Amino acid sequence: MTKQDVRARILHVGAEIIHKKGFNNTGIQEILKTAEVPKGSFYFYFKNKDDFGIQLIDYFSNFFFTNFDKCLSDVNYTPTENLRRFFNTFLAFFENNDFCGGCPIGNLSQEMADINDMFRERLQEEFNRIKNKILECLKDGKERNEIPNHLDIEEVADFIINSWEGALIRMKVTKETTSLRIFDKIVFEHLLK
Amino acid sequence: MTKQDVRARILHVGAEIIHKKGFNNTGIQEILKTAEVPKGSFYFYFKNKDDFGIQLIDYFSNFFFTNFDKCLSDVNYTPTENLRRFFNTFLAFFENNDFCGGCPIGNLSQEMADINDMFRERLQEEFNRIKNKILECLKDGKERNEIPNHLDIEEVADFIINSWEGALIRMKVTKETTSLRIFDKIVFEHLLK
After folding, report:
1. DSSP state of B9
2. In sequence order, which residues have a C-beta less than 8 Å from that of residue A4 and are 6 or more positions away?
3. Burial code of B169-178, b = ≥16 C-beta within 10 A, e = fewer?
4. Which of B45, B63, B107, B114 is exposed most, by the fewest CB atoms within 10 A?
């Protein structure tokens, strides 16, 4: 493996374990054992576990935004149709993944925001980035008269990402996608109609 | 302290620490040290840490429903006004608690649902209990023509509790209550109008 491969491999394996078990509940040793990488390699790429956690947020974020951008730029659909399609791609994803995991950004927020300010600030940026992406979509939708005039789209963008996070928590508990379907219906068939 | 006091004290102190640091990130030893209770007492009341966690859910639930019932039964307000008042009581609460903690049921769900089926099932019951309480309110509101006819109140009840959970995660990240205020405005001034 090249150096870049080793770093990517640690992040990839760490992401998978932490996404399921949580950050505090996962030891570096477990990640390295699963990744089949010696301990020294870890400290070559990451100062410590917190530094690894922060780089993990970048890793999740890149993955997320690549899909987000791709989905939102499909000119065959209107802006709010693209937004709706984006959230709905997750339905199939979670159906294939035992309704586990949820959103890594939401999970880390829940777990770390109260106990680690460095994580909290980085996660706040990430939420703002997602919110702004949704907002762009709603702005485009507004220009096309897709959005009811009485709505404040800044607030709606925040509400959408927050409500989605909550729907994912409920999915983890019920192990089915009713909460995501209700999110889809109420946001796109009631609120935005 | 009487026996009942010791059990209550362990739960009270444990609730506080776990609410902030998470279940897996908190050791029994830390709880007992803070509670100033010997180890033997713990195992007199709780079979193991998981059993303690399940009893902790009851503890959170009793606290929650006592306030919920009290708030919802105030005859000076309409059903949806009472529901709105209930959620808004938390605004002041979180302002006085550094916007930390969020919802213990949501937190444990995020942390435990994927890794412990006993917790998951107990948390699922709890979510259903909250949802049914909100649904009662919406049913009463519907009888008084407070709720738009096109809404499926079963779905709205689920949507409300899920969206609230998400708003609380965002609050933990931003350390202010914008997400809760947006939840209030969009649910009670748009969706339910």
Report:
1. H
2. none
3. bbbbbbeebe
4. B63
CA distance A3 to chain B (A): 32
pLDDT digits (tens, 9 = 90+) for A7-18: 999 999 999 999
* Residues 6 or more apart in contact with residue B61 via CB below 8 angstroms: B105, B126, B129
What span, in angstroms and rounded, lies between the C-alpha atoms of B37 and B31?
Answer: 9
Residue-wise pLDDT for A104-143, tens only, equals: 999 999 999 999 999 999 999 999 999 999 999 999 999 9
A170 vs A179: CA distance, rounded Å: 6
Chain A residues with CB-CB distance to B87 below 8 A: none
pTM (two decimals)? 0.96
Residue matched to tokens 């890149």: A62
A77-107 exposure pattern, b = at least 16 Cβ within 10 A, e = fewer: eebbebbbebbbebeeebeeeebebbbbbbb
Tokens found for residue B80: 């949806």
What tokens appear for B127 in the block? 């979510």
For chain A, give the number of residues: 193
Euclidean distance between CA atoms B19 and B24, whole angstroms? 11
Q: Which of A160, A184, A180, A132 is nearest to B187 (CA)?
A: A160
* Best to test chain B binding among A107, A153, A162, A185 (most B CBs inside 10 Å): A162
User: Does A162 touch chain B if contact means CB atoms closer than 8 Å?
Assistant: yes
Residue with tokens 């984006």, as numbered in its chain: A86
pLDDT in tens, B116-149: 999 999 999 999 999 999 999 999 999 999 999 9
* Residue A30, both tokens: 């477990």
Structure confidence at residue B1 (pLDDT): 67
Distances from the Cα of B77 to the Cαs of A53, B66, B141, in angstroms?
47, 18, 11
* Whole-number pLDDT of residue A40: 87
Nearest of B117, B99, B104, B92 to residue B21 by alpha carbon: B104
Structure token digits, residue B113: 């649902």
ipTM at complex level:
0.95
Structure tokens at B25: 């990130």
Chain A partners within 8 Å of B108 (Cβ): none
Whether the pLDDT of residue A25 is over 80: the answer is: yes
